[in-house]
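G., the chain you wanted modeled:
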Amino acid sequence: MTLQLSMRKSKDVVFPDEVAEWADMSTAMLRARAAGYCMVVNFTIHLLMCQSEIRLKRALDIEEKARQLHCELDLARGEILQAKNGARSQQEQILAMIEEKEKHQELISALTEEKMKQQDLISTLTEEKVKLQRENAIQEVRAEERSHAIKRFKESSEFHDL
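Predicted structure as tokens:
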């Protein structure tokens, strides 16, 4: 590519005054200017590389921290899962205990009814016992009266006359 062709193509890229300056320059000056631009470009590329290296290190550090946080998150999820399982088993135990309590309450109700029946039976038997004791007492009294009557009869003259 010739100098004039490159100047025509670069008119859109650079300022026209700068292009006019380049036309008046010697080849050595153009090379020096190109070398200067190359140095600026190289410096800029070097800075960009340094920045990208720094950003890469930061990104790697952040990525490592993210991995650690993910590990902690996984551990926390595991603990939550264990807690849920523990709560679920406790809930099952509570339900089993509630069922057992209901069975015990039914048993208590049945035993209470049986106790009431037994108490009624005891009171009935007690009343009958009292009646029997009265009857026995009456029979004893009658037996004593009979024995006294027999004794009196035996002691009486009528018994001896017979």
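Residues 132 and 138 are 9 Å apart (CA to CA).

Shout if anything looks off.
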